[in-house]
Structure to design on (125 residues):
């Protein structure tokens, strides 16, 4: 087990899949971003608010970090959001909260809904 700081220093790819809570809010800020290797990739597929987006935009503008986001602190993104003005836009990919939409995930969702409806109907009889 390593500390977050050590993980950020050593990793070429950091992929976040955490819930947003008191411990994870702004977990990745300026200091943490500055620890990351030049050319590292940061993915946030967990929840918006874990990565400080203002500091993230600044770091992307420095040109030494590649970022993929499927979540933002506030969705949809606002016109004046710092990420909308990133100069190194080739280093940034934002998707509209669709990381869950694999074929497997959709199948599990449909099966879960089916089971919930079936159990609901069974209990009403």
């Amino acid at each position: 087990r390593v500390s977050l700081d050590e993980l950020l220093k050593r990793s070429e790819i950091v992929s976040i899949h955490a819930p947003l809570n008191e411990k994870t809010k702004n977990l990745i800020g300026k200091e943490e971003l500055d620890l990351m290797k030049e050319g590292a990739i940061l993915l946030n597929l967990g929840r918006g608010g874990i990565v400080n987006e203002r500091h993230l935009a600044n770091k992307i503008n420095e040109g030494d970090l590649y970022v993929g986001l499927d979540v933002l602190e506030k969705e949809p993104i606002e016109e004046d959001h710092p990420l909308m003005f990133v100069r190194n836009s080739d280093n940034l990919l934002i998707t509209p909260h669709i990381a869950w939409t694999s074929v497997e995930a959709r199948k599990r969702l449909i099966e879960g809904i089916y089971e919930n409806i079936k159990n609901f109907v069974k209990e009403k009889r």
